[in-house]
TrEMBL record:
It comes from Panagrolaimus superbus. Its EC number is 1.14.99.60. It comes from the Eukaryota. Pathway: Cofactor biosynthesis; ubiquinone biosynthesis. Pfam families: COQ7. This is 5-demethoxyubiquinone hydroxylase, mitochondrial. Fe cation 1 binds at E30, E61, H64, E149. It is a peripheral membrane protein.
Length: 188
């Protein structure tokens, strides 16, 4: 009896830490995505065809961020202490890639959204392995966000992101930076 109570307590601590880690890193990710598109829109002609495409993705990122802010409040998760630094870095990434032209702006989208889509998938698997019923609501949210990130990725590919100069180097550099941000956000 005592052992099963201890087991339940350990499971509950593990579950709490799992949800906390996922919500904190996803909040940081959505904040970063919002700032990337804000940076791109700051330097793009808002009435251009690219402006329309990026504005649509940005609107979706704003909704993702609002969703994550609700989850942060609901689960009482403190946001990562690096949030202000990530915000500035993401804005600079968005603005600089947009300054380099349409293909480079779209290459940034492809790089970021591919990594984020993969990251959401890994989290979805973790939550299912833990308990799909307990995490039903969170899973529903993450699956919806994952699907929308993958649509953003496809938009970036469709609009010539992979034709950007030095595409593979750029993609590796952006994804390496994002992985570093993910690593930090999962911990502090
Ligand atoms: Fe997003
Ligand atoms: Fe996205």
């Amino acid at each position: 009896m005592r052992r099963s109570i201890v087991r339940l307590a350990v499971d509950s601590v593990h579950r709490r830490r799992l949800v906390e880690r996922i919500v904190r890193v996803d909040h940081a990710g959505e904040l970063g995505a919002d700032r990337i598109y804000a940076g791109q829109m700051a330097v793009l002609d808002k009435n251009s065809s690219l402006g329309d495409i990026i504005k649509k993705m940005w609107d979706e990122e704003k909704e993702h961020l609002a969703t994550m802010e609700k989850l942060v409040a609901k689960h009482s998760v403190p946001p990562t202490i690096f949030a202000p630094i990530f915000s500035c870095a993401a804005f600079a990434l968005g603005a600089s890639t947009a300054l380099l032209g349409k293909e480079t702006a779209m290459a940034c989208t492809v790089a970021v959204e591919e990594l984020i889509g993969r990251h959401y998938n890994d989290q979805i698997k973790e939550l299912i392995n833990d308990d799909p019923e307990v995490h039903k609501e969170l899973l529903h949210t993450l699956i919806r966000l994952r699907d929308e990130e993958l649509e953003h990725h496809d938009t970036g590919v469709f609009h010539d992101g992979p034709k950007a100069p030095f595409y593979s180097y750029l993609k590796t550099a952006i994804q390496t930076g994002c992985k570093g941000a993910i690593w930090l956000s999962e911990r502090v």
